[in-house]
Design a protein that fits this description.
The chain is of the alpha+beta class and 462 residues long. The protein contains 19 helices and 11 strands. A 4-stranded mixed sheet has the order 1-2-7-4. Strands 3-11-8 form a 3-stranded antiparallel sheet. A two-stranded antiparallel sheet has the order 5-6. The structure holds protoporphyrin IX containing FE (HEM). Protoporphyrin IX containing FE binds next to helix 13 and helix 19.
Length: 462
């Protein structure tokens, strides 16, 4: 017994000594000394624990936003991570040839031994892969490809899933028709959360993957399963010949170098990147508009003027519909959290501070989109601000819902077209619809990389 107590005491001393050692090494490291001038909470100079806890509880973007409100546009959020929302500095970090590669953080979005467009780090490798997909995702090609009570988010996810199926595999998943969540959707919903928690807490990921409790185990297995489903869909498409009508037939020079493994990895990532993003944005848009009957009336009037067989160019010409989509992306953009990059060799001067090399610098549109310098009364959902010419300057400096520079979203035209069509169709078909009383009064989000609106979004047709 006495021996056990002595052992515990020794162990305690060891843990304490190790913690003090780690603290001292971190505190007096070159990076820490260089970053001391960067404002931020004291803990950030020696631990990333509060940030980690925020990540695994789905609150990272909001913690970082609070820190910016307290400390300004450049904030140290962890020993070797600085968050930057100074508009000029964000441009420096993301522009072509900036020398700030994506951080290894993006590896959590792949589940294959091959990197994908989204996760590639090297700019040469990324440039080559981007060229292969550039034309297929261009506005012209995307155009040519398209030939009681309702749970809004569910139906929007059905829509986005079916469109993704069409584009990636030449075949719809038919979830809209069947009205049922399929295996692919359940997997997608879990993949983001499972991947991020496993990356932050590998031991929990390891145990979760093996737990005999399906509800928990499936969350940690979703990433791997999503890849298998992607492979199956590609194989099926090839067998049936349907893939000939998919995005993968529009590829440019260099596509010969893509293996079957590359294709299914890219397909898996495209579906992940393109499904929830558009569905979440549309859910927020409909929620925000249906809460303001005056906005609803203007949109209903605009879309009522479209011909029966309207096309995308005609919806793109409707000022209020487009202003409303932009305003939704500003306030409720689904990918507005941190986009981490690594500082280049020799470090850089960003937002008035010297940041040494090899430090993670993350920028977040969530905060940039609420900067009063550019967006007066920033928390107000106000599509009218987009009808004023002066908004152009603000948008150039501080509007980046799809990212900017060479890593800007490749699906931007697809997403915008999908959202324009969905808005036009909804407000033509469901004139006078209203939100059910179950719907949330204010929007709150769960943040596992994407910002997913919380709550039931119930629509009641007129
Ligand atoms: C409202 C809808 C969407 C939003 C807000 C959005 C947002 C973003 C953002 C912010 C990035 C930059 C990430 C970074 O720099 O770290 C990005 C990249 C990307 N997005 Fe989207 N996205 C949307 C829809 C789509 C769709 C429909 C696809 C379809 C395939 C897609 C595929 C991708 C890919 C592959 C990348 C990586 C591009 C590269 O690194 O070259 N996204 N997206």
């Amino acid at each position: 017994m006495e021996l056990a107590e002595a052992d515990i005491a020794t162990l305690g001393m060891l843990v304490l000594a190790t913690s003090v050692g780690v603290f001292l090494v971190n505190y007096f490291s070159k990076i820490n000394i260089a970053l001391r001038k960067v404002p931020g909470p004291f803990y950030a100079s020696f631990t990333n624990l509060p940030l980690k806890i925020a990540v695994i509880t789905g609150r990272r973007t909001f913690l970082v936003h609070q820190l910016h409100q307290k400390y300004g546009p450049v904030v140290r959020v962890a020993p070797s991570e600085v968050s930057i929302v100074d508009a000029e500095a964000c441009k420096i970090i993301h522009r072509a040839g900036s020398g700030f590669p994506k951080s290894p953080y993006y590896a959590r979005f792949i589940n294959k031994p091959v990197p994908t467009l989204f996760a590639m780090i090297g700019s040469k490798e990324h440039g080559e892969r981007r060229k292969v997909f550039a034309r297929a995702f261009s506005k012209t090609e995307i155009h040519d490809l398209k030939s009681g009570k309702a749970d809004l988010l569910k139906w929007l996810l059905f829509m986005a899933t079916d469109i993704s199926g069409h584009l990636m595999f030449g075949e719809s998943f038919r979830t809209l028709e069947n009205g049922e969540v399929n295996d692919y959707m359940t997997t997608l919903q879990m993949a983001g959360k499972g991947g991020i928690i496993s990356e932050e807490l590998p031991l929990l990921g390891f145990i979760g993957y093996r737990l005999p409790i399906p509800a928990i185990r499936d969350v940690f297995r979703a990433n791997a399963k999503q890849t298998v489903l992607g492979e199956d869909a590609i194989e099926n498409g090839i067998k049936t010949g349907n893939h000939k009508r998919s995005i993968f037939t529009q590829l440019d020079e260099g596509s010969d170098a893509l293996t079957r493994l590359d294709l299914s990895a890219e397909a898996g990532n495209f579906i992940l990147a393109g499904t929830d993003t558009t569905a979440f944005t549309l859910a927020c848009l409909l929620w925000a508009v249906l809460r303001h009957s005056s906005l609803q009336a203007i949109i209903e009037e605009e879309v009522a003027g479209l011909p029966e067989d309207f096309n995308d160019a005609q919806v793109e010409a409707l000022p209020f519909v487009n202003a409303t989509i932009n305003e939704t992306l500003r306030l409720y953009g689904p990918a507005a959290g941190s986009l981490p990059r690594i500082t280049k060799q020799g470090g850089a001067e960003l937002g008035g501070y010297y940041i040494p090399e090899s430090v993670t610098v993350s920028t977040q549109a969530f905060t940039l989109h609420r900067d009063e310098k550019f967006w007066p009364d920033p928390e107000k959902f106000d599509p009218y601000r987009w009808l004023d010419d002066s908004v152009q300057e603000a948008a150039k400096m501080a509007f980046a819902p799809f990212g900017t520079g060479p890593r800007v979203c490749i699906g931007i035209h697809l997403a915008q077209m999908e959202m324009r069509f969905a808005v036009a169709m909804f407000f033509r078909r469901f004139k006078g619809a209203r939100l059910g009383s179950e719907s949330p009064m204010t929007l709150e989000f769960e943040n596992y990389f994407l910002l997913k609106p919380k709550g039931d979004f119930i629509i009641i047709p007129a």
